[in-house]
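User: For a reading group we're discussing how well predicted structures match intuition. Take Peptidase M10 metallopeptidase domain-containing protein. Before you show the prediction, I'll give you the sequence so everyone sees exactly what went in.
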Amino acid sequence: MLCLVRPAATLWPSLLALALALGCADDSALDDASDTQTSAGSDELGETGEALGCERPVELPDGAVDPVPWQLAGEVALADDGSTATLAIEIPADQRYLAIRTSPVDGDEADNAQLCHDLLEAHLIAADRSLIPDEDAPLTDTDQRRFAGPGAGVFAFSNTLEPLLPPGAEDTLELRLQMRNCIAGTEASRAFFPDMATQLRVEVASEPQWSEAPKPDAPARLAARMLVAEDSGWGLSADDPAMAEAWAVAVERFAAANIELSLEAEGTTGAVGTLSYDATMLALRELHGEALACLRGAEDDERFVPVVAVPCVYLETPGSSSQLFGHNPHVPGVFDETTNPSLVVLAAGACLDDGSPEPVKTPTAHGLILAHEIGHYLGLHHSDVSLGEHLATGPEATLMRSDISMASDPSSAYFSTPQAEVMLRHPDLREPL
Ligand SMILES: [Zn+2]
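Assistant: Thanks. Here is the predicted 3D structure of Peptidase M10 metallopeptidase domain-containing protein, as structure tokens, for the group to look at:
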């Protein structure tokens, strides 16, 4: 079974996506026995990787990049039913994006780590409009998409075709949050998590629109930095033609979306072994912390996409285990180092532990998966599920389809124009030169 590029980002709330992932077609390139197993068998997969630090010190780029301007919007009380009080957020006119992140102020770390932060209400006062659908109402093309993040919440708007506010308009957003049980997707209450936080911190960031829209000769800029595990079967792009070719494919896909993607730093790390994790993403935190320690110059040095190349990744869901070729733990990818792992994981698919790991796909196929995962990092959901269908423009832009790892025709594997517009609103994007 090869459901392999599906990120767990769609694990919740889209159970449909989960069903798609588990129901996808066989792939003869892999031994079926290694692909899907019962939970009982998953112990054989081994422990989560032990990241060993940067073996080759990573040379980080010179020159300061302005940090994302996070500001404290306030702290809100968390009730026993996992919902918060209302917080009002002022939105200035003509902003490129509005980003919101939430994290626990107090409570027990183990309980808090099981909580996924979701929006319960998001209402624009002046426009008298709700950004998200009422509970159980169908998702429309103009509803903002959000993902319930493990341990902390990050939400970036607008992620629909329309900007958040009309030109020149300012507004006030009234916000309430809901904690959910990451595994079950249900409301998280104090009855289940007696020591969960009583207060949440809410931070907000926004920046004015750029003066010029990105164009082919003056694209927006996006930086990535990569750590390559020594047991991945890959080397640095500077040394390994297969890795260089994969990056070239990803760079070309972003260039077609008016985004200049550059790999501005890379280094190697020790063996990480098989990564195996569930919807809490707890098992990825060590890798995330290690990647940031190697790839980041300072605490607020965060305007880049961290990529880690590993041998093998399994996603554990109740009753089964699926092998992935790529993964991004949350959408979108503004990261918080302690609470919410956020990085792009690129897997070689070398899961057989035979001592000679080798990427199992062509460099082009791994490059498409890399571009797809960075697309998730910048806020895109799969174009063939309800969360992402509003940005799909037909069969010609297949890069964000959930089955991209099985794509037989790379010529159509590009971002759609609406997908490109949403990515350009992500905080990590840098203005055209
Ligand atoms: Zn995906």
